[in-house]
Design goal:
Number of domains: 2
Order of helices and strands: EEHHHHHHHHEEHHHHHHH
Number of strands: 4
Structural class: mainly alpha
Length: about 375
């Protein structure tokens, strides 16, 4: 026996796609088309490629410890594009209405750096503050980093679109096989997506500290210092085109020197990301020791089973849906691992227990479906 949309059917029965599934395919296609139209509305394909390739590369790099879905990353990217109007509106009010457009240096350094670095990740912070949500417990620091990077990339895409930016300098970033990890870094600034990613990573560390009730104050200071670091790099990267470093306030000039004119932050960020991937991979692996997992050969047989009945659209669609189920199974198991890691917080135990029960049931259903296939 196998299942389609939760309905049991004999293995020899012909695969049929109900009308509701066709309608869902149409809605899914319309969602993708709308996203492409929104991205192309920026009128700068290099900007789209820069932000999307950065996010895709970061998601692939963090896959060993990632539990957040591609659709969630996509939603945060689009959300970042829409939420970009908030810092832009605040900057317009301060620089144009309150200051009358007479403080260009102050606006490009203090106002821009402060509002953008704080407000880019504000939607993620608000989601984490929802009391009834298990989002903060289902995901790790690498997942929060990806969500924050998507918000920052959405803002960067809107900013580059408004400026009609069509070319980028060579990124100042570590690379893998000639691919720059932070491909939007330039002029001493790690980029909007990169700075938001580092802030999101420290937010994940803070959540671990809160769950364990240990080192909460140091973790809070790490979040504050990382945000300040990104502000300084952003501000001085903008200011270096307007003045000489010798005129800068001494502490800021020292930060700029220690950071090697902003070129050190991408390498420090890459090192922190790799460390986070290794630690979280070990943590969820230990947490999932008691949960049985299906093998790669079982998953392959499960995915290709519909092709025994033909190669039409229903069979091919069923293969795609089963491949999607395999990826969701992997991510769901990791969410159970993160829930187990965060389970020490007393005030979250009831919500975490319910989330673990729901996701464990999903994993068991998938394992039985694979065994029947």
């Amino acid at each position: 026996m196998a299942t389609i949309n939760g309905v049991a059917r004999p293995a020899s029965a012909t695969v049929r796609v109900p009308l509701k599934a066709y309608l869902w395919d149409i809605v899914w296609a319309a969602r993708i088309i709308a996203a492409i139209a929104l991205l192309l509305a920026a009128r700068t394909l290099p900007a789209v490629w820069h932000e999307v390739s950065f996010l895709a590369g970061l998601a692939i790099l963090t896959y060993p410890a990632r539990s957040v879905r591609w659709g969630t990353i996509y939603n945060f990217l689009i959300g970042g594009m829409f939420f970009a109007c908030v810092p832009i509106a605040i900057q317009y009010v301060i620089e144009q209405i309150m200051l009358g457009g007479r403080a260009q240096v102050f606006g490009s350094t203090i106002v821009a750096a402060t509002t953008e670095e704080v407000l880019k990740v504000l939607p993620l912070v608000l989601i984490l503050l929802i009391p009834s949500s298990t989002f903060r417990s289902r995901h790790g620091a690498c997942d929060l980093m990806l969500c924050a990077a998507a918000l920052g990339s959405g803002f960067g895409l809107v900013e580059d679109g408004l400026r009609h930016k069509v070319s980028y300098p060579t990124p100042e970033s570590p690379g893998i096989f000639s691919y720059a990890i932070f491909n939007d870094s330039r002029g001493g600034f790690i980029g909007h997506g990169g700075s938001a990613a580092l802030i999101g990573l420290t937010l994940g560390v803070l959540l671990y500290a809160i769950a364990k009730r240990k080192f909460v104050l140091p973790a809070t200071l790490v979040v504050a210092l990382t945000t300040a670091w990104m502000m300084v790099d952003h501000a001085l990267s903008n200011y270096q085109t307007l003045g000489s470093p010798s005129n800068w306030f001494a502490p800021l000039r020292w930060i700029w020197i220690v950071d090697r004119r902003g070129t050190l932050s991408p390498y420090v960020g890459f090192f922190l990301i790799v460390v986070a991937i290794v630690i979280e991979r070990i943590a969820i692996r230990r947490a999932l020791r008691a949960i049985r997992h299906v093998t790669a050969s079982q998953c392959a047989g499960y995915i290709l089973r519909p092709l025994r009945e033909g190669y039409g659209y229903p069979q091919l669609r069923e293969c795609v849906m089963r491949l999607r189920n395999v990826f969701l199974y992997v991510l769901t198991r990791r969410q159970i691992g993160y829930l187990a890691v965060h389970a020490s917080a007393d005030h979250h135990r009831a919500e975490i227990a319910r989330a673990v029960a729901n996701r464990t049931a999903e994993v068991i259903v998938f394992q039985k479906a694979v065994e029947r296939a």
